[in-house]
């Protein structure tokens, strides 16, 4: 049974989420502050985290950053829960490593679908593509979900990892943003081009000098550099 950790201070929303998640076969844990959420995530890592943005104490963005930079929790997909007027924070959230976001008020049906898509993506892709990919200094091990640059492991979020994998599997192949969104999130997902650009920028930054393997193709999209 997949475990969901809810980090949210509003009791009504926790109850709504808990009810719908249990009904759909998920195991649910929750924390009403970021600090408690972090502690829970570290002591018993869940399969996925639903993280509210507006929390008392440490806010959701900082919690996300802490989760994503921690060895124990960095691989866990995070869906941010945001209010309608927090549009700016969505981009910031993606910058600090959140994998997806849902705007409140949300339909439980949509939320469950997104959650399932993210979980499916995380396991499916990791399991079906086991072959280790190498390009220049980059080594991608889909089975272990790890990326090394010159034998040094780097920490990527689930989304950054998928983006890198999708591109690196077909060097020289140009992917437009819509294809990338489809590949990493499933076809029914609506996300802005800007969000893909942000994820690519993060990925390049983390790859350091090897970031040049991800090339921008003007007016078209992105591609992974072909070996000369
Ligand atoms: Ca809140």
Describe the structure.
The protein has eight helices and eleven strands. The protein has 228 residues and is α/β, with parallel strands linked by helices. The chain has two domains: 3-125, Response regulator (Rossmann fold), CATH 3.40.50; 128-224, Arc Repressor Mutant, subunit A. Helix 1 links the parallel strand 1 and strand 2 (27-31). Helix 2 runs parallel beside helix 3 and helix 6 crosses helix 8. The chain is globular and about 55 Å long. The chain starts with a strand and ends with a strand. Bound molecules: calcium ion.
Number of helices: 8
Distance N to C terminus: 46 Å
CATH topology of the largest domain: Rossmann fold
CA-based shape: globular
Query: How large a portion of the residues is in β-strands, by DSSP E?
Result: 15-25%
Strand order of the largest sheet: 2-1-3-4-5
Q: Report the mean per-residue pLDDT as an integer.
A: 87
How many runs of DSSP E, i.e. beta strands?
11
Number of domains: 2
Structural class from helices and strands? Answer: alpha/beta
**Sheet with the most strands, sense and barrel status:** 5 strands, parallel
